[in-house]
């Protein structure tokens, strides 16, 4: 005979076909329903965690791939910025450095006006700090410096707001401001030819414009805004590295900001959303798993006479207990494994599926001026799959304990007397 006997009987109960009686049909229906709920819960949680992993990856690799991890500034325009860049890049925690001149400005074409952040860059060093070159034509960055007329690279969101295309002209305006000595710095306006339009799929498409260093310096009127952008080995430790670098520089009023001051709220929101959504979906799995309780309770009621006969034939309390634990374990194992497979498949196709729905219905579910990126990212991590599948199975196993204990306490004489 098949050994162990409790597993054999439990598997027979779990795989038994409907016998035509109302109670058997109801038990079979509830058992299938609990398994389907567990499958959907596990699959949904894997997909949700993969999407949250995708948003986290896009923040680190796409948004912070374009923007620096940290930037050191100084209001003194007489500083030798190339020399400072070389000094900072030699630090052991710094991967690369590039000089930059940042100006808050307005872009205008006709009657359309939009605010933006203008970055004056050195095309030769910016590619070491930023991966903006991935979204541009190969010659676009070089054209910023080599072109005889003023040129600019715009984000796609800015270009759409202004209804401007590559090769057309826009005006960049820097409003008047304090010069730091009690006077006013006059407003500056200049026309620029758009040499390229980048589409990174992030919120930067709606806020960033690139100029040559000297053009940005002219727009700023020689005021504050110059600095050195840094890419660091440890992104999460950028604040402490920045403080260390500033303290090591000569006392010339250096100060800095890191990515946490500009995108830290976004990073925290992603992490919080991941935890909250994960908790909610885990509760769904728990509810589906504990549906096994109602299934096994009905099985115990339906099998009172069978349990009594097994007890009279010498089956121990432990064997009766393991019989029903085996049945619940099978439901949990099948539900968790099938849900895991569906979740993995869903995580792999969810990005293309959403993109297909957007194309089919002509709508865009995610817009980069509202969300971090304009598409639904997904990154499957096998550790998450193992955790979710394991949690689903363990919860189902825990749910079997109560009805299994009730079955082990059935008294043979009382059960058989009630069957008469």
From TrEMBL:
* Protein name (Swiss-Prot/TrEMBL): Lipoprotein-releasing system transmembrane protein LolE
The record, for PANTHER family, names: LIPOPROTEIN-RELEASING SYSTEM TRANSMEMBRANE PROTEIN LOLE
Report the residue ranges that make up the MacB-like periplasmic core domain in this protein: 31-220
| Species the sequence originates in | Microbulbifer aggregans
**Is the keyword Transport assigned to this protein?**
yes
Alphabetized, the UniProt keywords read: Cell membrane, Lipoprotein, Membrane, Transmembrane, Transmembrane helix, Transport
Entry GO terms, CC: plasma membrane protein complex
What Pfam family is a match, any one? MacB_PCD
Q: What NCBIfam families is this protein classified in?
A: lolCE
